[in-house]
Specification:
Elements: H1 2-21, H2 37-60, H3 64-69, H4 76-87, H5 90-103, H6 106-132, H7 137-141, H8 147-181, H9 185-232, H10 238-248, H11 260-263, H12 265-277, H13 283-286, H14 295-326, H15 347-396, H16 403-427, H17 433-446, H18 448-457, H19 463-483, H20 485-489, H21 505-521, H22 526-533, H23 535-544
Length: 554
């Protein structure tokens, strides 16, 4: 296995090198940019370093517990950094700074929504999740309910969220590499997809966690330096920076008010619900609470992660406002129509070159690339776990699958997810990645969160209620996306959307919660009596941790 890994890695680096070398020959706007040797060097160094890290993790990944949860031996501080790393995605870094650059405070609203969702996890979910679960959040949702139905629903909910989130990350990765190296977008997306498959297939959760930790430290450090160098241009005066942004942005003072895309009350409420409740339904975030030894470390994880995430979003918003003046007024970063070269998501990358030169541009670009790789790896792992642990081992094999077979299925699922991510990354090339993430958050808030929340806290939840209500949330959320402006108009090319709102969580969450409630209170079946009778035992374990799975020696 390790030998295969090294052969695959060597082939990948060779392909990357040949692709980069071919970049100068590619026609088109991006290909005409000069090659940044420093950025390419840092890019290749990071790829090589993370592949070595994955090889190290592969030798220590022997069992299903190692593969899914790194043996449960990650500390609260380490896990806090890894969770923050999962949260500080390319969409957050490139998308939020790009949204502030283009629309002003719209980007700030996104960061507020993302950040305030964390206390929800901290105070209500994290410890109980660790006490009740083992590998995936479906373990918790199905704790006292019928395994087959709830695990199937949870697995499909997790896969849907993972796929939408992967789209955003793949688009960010493709744009970044396209801009840096002049490499065709298609090749860039394929490169990221192949690296993701290598990390997860061979290194499992251990490799994914350490890649995430390294990337979180680099990203926080890089953004801090970027803001320091940017503010230096304004005498370290935030007031001078904001005044310059108002003077130089085409919309001037209007950037201090929400744009038409979120000023509508229904859209604003939907967006707020998605961003606040979505984090408590993201499968790759929830899965991280099983990598720590106990509930105490799970609580510490969220505490540290909250601090890192809050600090990061302050930096991302500041970067966006800095870029309005330092990048938006410099013709070197604008095309013939006055638009940002590489698209609005590249504001932070251009700013790094403006204030720090080619060396810093190379560093920030490599960090952004590391961000994307780490997040897509975590997403792929959670999606593969939903297939192998929930669907294959528990639903199809009814708990009779061996560790070896389960891990083999997980690796196969990773390969399928990788191919799917590449295909969808190509289809959604021109979408704003922060917006795509908001769609994923809406799905997580509409499907996973209602089932998880009510199964833990409401004694009256029954299997029928959770299944039907969760399904209503999933179907209504997907229908709203497909029939809404994002897919129906921008992707499929129809003139008018059937569902008029881009943000839909208000409707799909109401459908999910009301469905769970109604179909539970009207459930008089024998299964419903078993479901309700199981609540006291679940409550004791969730509060005390008695009987919870422990960490394994590594």
């Amino acid at each position: 296995m390790i030998r295969v890994f090294f052969l695959s890695a060597a082939a990948l680096v060779a392909i990357a090198g040949s692709g980069l070398a071919a970049g100068g020959a590619i026609e088109g706007e991006v290909a005409k940019r000069s090659v940044n040797v420093i950025a390419i060097g840092m890019f290749l160094f990071f790829v090589a370093a993370t592949l070595l890290l994955t090889a190290w993790a592969a030798r220590r990944t022997k069992s299903a517990s190692d593969f899914y949860t790194a043996g449960g031996g990650i500390t609260g501080f380490q896990n806090g950094l890894a969770i923050a790393g999962d949260y500080m995605s390319a969409a957050a870094f490139l998308g939020v700074s790009g949204m502030v650059f283009g629309k002003g405070v719209d980007g700030v609203f996104y960061t507020v929504g993302w950040t305030v969702g964390w206390p929800l996890i901290l105070f209500m979910i994290a410890e109980r999740l660790r006490n009740l679960g083992r590998y995936t959040f479906a373990d918790v949702a199905s704790f006292r309910l019928e395994q087959t139905k709830i695990r199937t629903l949870s697995a499909f909910g997790a896969l849907t969220v993972v796929i939408f989130y992967l789209i955003a990350q793949m688009v960010g990765a493709g744009k970044l590499i396209q801009l840096l190296f002049g490499l065709d977008y298609t090749y860039a997306v394929v490169l990221v997809g192949v690296l993701m498959m290598l990390y997860v297939t061979f290194g499992g959760m251990l490799a994914t966690t350490w890649v995430q930790i390294v990337k979180a430290v680099l990203l926080l450090g890089g953004c801090t330096i970027l803001v320091f160098l940017g503010l230096k241009q304004f005498g370290f005066s935030p007031e001078a920076m904001m005044q310059a942004a108002l003077d130089n942005h085409a919309a001037h003072d209007a950037i201090l008010a929400p744009s038409s895309s979120i000023s509508d009350p229904i859209t604003a409420v939907s967006l707020a619900l998605a961003l606040m409740c979505g984090p408590a339904g993201l499968p790759h975030i929830l899965m991280r609470f099983f990598t720590v030894p106990d509930a105490k470390e799970a609580r510490k994880s969220v505490f540290y992660a909250t601090g890192f995430i809050g600090y990061f979003f302050v930096l991302a918003v500041t970067i966006g406002f800095l870029a309005i003046t330092l990048v938006g007024t410099n013709p070197a970063y604008l095309d013939a129509e006055g638009a940002l070269v590489g698209g609005g998501n590249m504001a932070a990358i251009h700013l790094s070159g403006e204030v720090g030169g080619d060396v810093f541009l190379g560093f920030i670009s490599a960090v952004a690339f590391a961000t994307i790789l780490a997040v897509v790896s975590g997403l792929a792992l959670s999606g593969a776990s939903a297939v192998s642990h929930d669907l294959y081992a528990r639903v199809i094999k009814k708990g009779a699958a061996s560790d070896k077979t389960e891990m083999r299925v997980s690796r196969l699922a990773t390969l399928v997810l990788g191919v799917l991510a590449i295909a969808l990354g190509l289809v959604f090339e021109n979408q704003n990645i922060a917006f795509m993430v908001s769609l994923a958050f809406g799905l997580a808030a509409s499907v996973n969160f209602p089932v998880l929340f009510l199964s833990i806290f409401w004694k009256g939840t029954t299997t029928r209620g959770a299944f039907v209500g969760g399904l209503m949330g999933l179907v209504s959320a997907v229908a709203c996306v497909v029939l809404g402006p994002t897919v129906w108009v921008k992707v499929l090319g129809f003139e008018t959307a059937i569902f008029p709102y881009e943000q839909y969580a208000l409707f799909s969450m109401v459908a999910a919660f009301s469905g769970i409630w109604f179909f539970s209170i009207t459930d008089r079946s024998d299964r419903a009596r078993i479901d309700r009778a199981g609540f006291p035992a679940q409550f004791v374990r969730s509060e005390t941790g008695l009987g919870a799975a422990g960490a394994l020696a590594h």
